[in-house]
Amino acid sequence: MTDPDEHAPVAVTVDLVVLTVRDDQLQALTIRRGEEPHRGRWALPGGFLRPDEDLPDAAERELREETGLSADRFHLEQLGSYGAPDRDPRMRTVTVAYIALAADLPTPTAGTDAADARWQPVSRLLGTDDALAFDHSAILADGVERARAKLEYTPLATAFCGEEFTVTELRHVYEVVWGTSLDPRNFHRKVTGTAGFLEPTGATTTRDGGRPAQLFRAGTTRHLHPPLLR
Amino acid sequence: MTDPDEHAPVAVTVDLVVLTVRDDQLQALTIRRGEEPHRGRWALPGGFLRPDEDLPDAAERELREETGLSADRFHLEQLGSYGAPDRDPRMRTVTVAYIALAADLPTPTAGTDAADARWQPVSRLLGTDDALAFDHSAILADGVERARAKLEYTPLATAFCGEEFTVTELRHVYEVVWGTSLDPRNFHRKVTGTAGFLEPTGATTTRDGGRPAQLFRAGTTRHLHPPLLR
DNA sequence: GCAAAAGTGTTGGGAGTACACCCATGA
DNA sequence: TCATGGGTGTACTCCCAACACTTTTGC
């Protein structure tokens, strides 16, 4: 590092790509901006880093503030940082983006203090480059691509399911996020055969219709061997 | 985003994990600090983000300053950001880390203005948690893990080779980075059979001894299908 | 019984591994 | 001629996609 005196005044923010599967679609949480710039436009939830806060703590706090839910209901990981000099007309900002994956939430953004918060299908948001304020469309696109890629080699898809879920519900997550269809029989064999992916609860359910299906919890593995391919 | 007035004064830096393969080892570029804090200790190269500079531009500039080589000689990608409140005793800093992969350089850090710059084996640097100043040991560990993972499913190993290289030289990169040994015959078949990975130059060389080997350039694919497994 | 979804068996092809073998050079 | 590494052939195994088939529920 060189002389600190030459550093520019920079504001650091944390922005969130919060994804869920709702109504057979991958959806992202968006907030309507109440202030300039981009007043009235949709944006990703986020806010400024506080003086004594580490980056993951700031991301958790924002997540709580925007959704009213505790952060342990989510998978949260850092996506990347964005710092183009003109990305915010007010001042020089660098944002550290996080992605959060969640099960379908009972009521979107319950208990938030944001003026207007809404789930919107990712397909619609990514259809036009300026659907979101600032550079948030690019950040969302990166987040979605990260999520798609991680389904292949991590058990992350379970983060989109509730506490207990069936193999079919898990497969549905893959089909929606990847936009493909998968063979139910082979999918079943594959996920139940991968050690540490799923943990049986012993209970069954008929909520998907037909023969009762076993209920599972997420296992403890962090990586899938072998990976599930698209 | 909420009120900008509540934001803390934060300095943003860019730090680099510069990796190369030298002397049958994965090595990282380190700089001896000439100032407090951590004066005299080794650290990752890096510096403050300038007022009108985007993050990738800052990373490229630092790379040029520290190595004296143009940035197109490297593969450069963002690794992640680190912002623990106490990571720098002088002030609140958030650093955006990048990894740079390079071929073995003729003379380490030629033309740099850094007081003391040196390649050091990653195995030695990661042996003790405080081998590097600040949180740089953790950043280095993350960077090495990223590089190892990316060799599996991208053609990134070619970034460690020169402009033209043989299959054996490429295999050597894999063996050093992964710390494994690979079957030369099957490796040859695999990499030459993956479309877009390697592009033949038509020339041959005997620099590895034995029968002349074909020379290749890096191809255009960004992903390996199927992946090379460790 | 019938529809619907869960879950198992079987089979054929493709990819990975191990290793025998041949090729082309320098010394 | 021998050592050294480059490169091909081949057989065996294992995984996986495709799909027929059985099981267990609700209606």
Kindly describe this structure.
2 copies of one chain form a homodimer. The first copy, chain A, is elongated, with a radius of gyration of 19 Å. Chain A has 2 domains: about 5-150, Nucleoside Triphosphate Pyrophosphohydrolase, CATH 3.90.79; about 155-220, Orthogonal Bundle (Arc Repressor Mutant, subunit A), CATH 1.10.10. Chain A contains 5 helices and 9 strands; from the N terminus they run E-E-E-E-H-E-E-E-H-H-H-H-E-E. In chain A, strands 1, 2, 3, 4, 5, 6 and 7 form a 7-stranded mixed beta sheet that branches. A two-stranded antiparallel sheet of chain A has the order 8-9. In chain A, a hairpin with a 2-residue loop joins strand 1 (about 10-20) and strand 2 (about 25-30). Residues about 1-5 of chain A have low confidence and may be disordered. The N and C termini of chain A lie far apart (about 45 Å). With about 230 residues, chain A is α+β, with helices and mostly antiparallel strands. At the A-B interface, strand 1, strand 4 and strand 5 of A face strand 1, strand 4 and strand 5 of B.
Give the CATH level 1 class of the largest domain in chain A: Alpha Beta
What's the oligomerization state?
homodimer
Beta-strand portion of chain A reads 25-35%
Span between termini of chain A? 43 Å
Main beta sheet strand tally, sense and closure of chain A? 7 strands, mixed
CATH fold topology of the largest domain in chain A: Nucleoside Triphosphate Pyrophosphohydrolase
Report the radius of gyration of chain A as a whole number of Å.
Answer: 19 Å
Q: Output the structural class of chain A.
A: alpha+beta
Name the biggest interface: A-B, 35 and 36 residues
Amount of helix of chain A:
10-25%
Secondary structure: number of strands of chain A? 9
Number of domains of chain A: 2
Annotation field: number of helices of chain A = 5
User: What is the CATH homology-level superfamily of the largest domain in chain A?
Assistant: Nucleoside Triphosphate Pyrophosphohydrolase
Shape of chain A: elongated
